[in-house]
Amino acid sequence: MGYSGGVSRLKAYIRPFKRKAEEPVVRFETLPGKQIQVDFTTIRRGRQPLKAFVATLGFSRASFVRFSEREDSEGWLTGLREAFAYFGGVPEQALFDNAGTIITERDAFGEGQHRWHPRLAALADEFGFIPKVCRPYRAQTKGKVERFNGYLKGSFITPLAATLKSAGLTLDVVTANAHIGQWLDEVAHQRIHGTTGVQPAVRLAQEQQVLLPLPTQSLRPQPAQGLRLGRVLPYESLQHPLSVYEQLLEVRA
Q1: Which run of H or E residues covers position 207?
Q2: At 93, is the secondary structure helix, strand, or coil?
């Protein structure tokens, strides 16, 4: 025996069961010097954790990376200071996720008026940038830095870890920091960016013209002194398929 009711009643009945369409991700571009997107990404968990503080300028897509074992307030603040020194200036805004080391209470003083972690608020006052956070459950609003995280792991972490493992060594914080600066300058910032179609180094030179000045005379941070292994990472051959490096990682497994 079939359904004898009206169509409108049937639609009203099934409406609560229909899956809501996901909000489309809208790509947006920022003006030079407007925004930096900041994130922590996990490289390795366990007894020897490896994490990376990553900061990506919205216009140029130039990035700064600093490795550490922990994601804490000190890691965020040190990373920001070193990133601003590396870029030679400060953007107008810094966009974060909703980590407790960044924001302690959303909308504490009204909509969009958040209570920031005291140390972050002090750093923002010192450098003159405005902190911003993503909407909850909308981390894709800082998609520029999220996409760089994937590129970092595939183009830097995997080749370096494989090369070290073939020599009986393990990638650690000191060694990663010792190599990241050269990789950023020679590889990441020299590639043709898939979205902008321009090398990040070229757009960075434009963006630096409008960055806010550093509050004090700052020097570009020097990479940490890692193991003296010579030119461990063959930068000129980073375009090999990832399967090549994955095979190296399996050699000593």
Answers
A1: helix 200-207
A2: strand
The C-alpha atoms of residue 187 and residue 233 are separated, in whole angstroms, by 11
Name all domains of the chain by residue range, CATH numbers in brackets: 35-251 (3.30.420.10)
pLDDT digits (tens, 9 = 90+) for 83-127: 999 999 999 999 988 777 777 767 656 666 677 788 989 999 999
Cα torsion angle, 208, 71, 221, 233, sign:
negative
Contacts of 57 (CB under 8 A, 6+ apart): 35, 36, 63, 87, 91, 204, 207
Cα distance between residue 30 and residue 95, in whole Å? 12
Tokens of 229: 């292994």
Using CA atoms, how far apart are residues 159 and 245, in angstroms rounded to an integer? 6
- Number of C-beta neighbours around residue 220 at 10 A: 10
Amino acid at site 106: R
pTM: 0.77
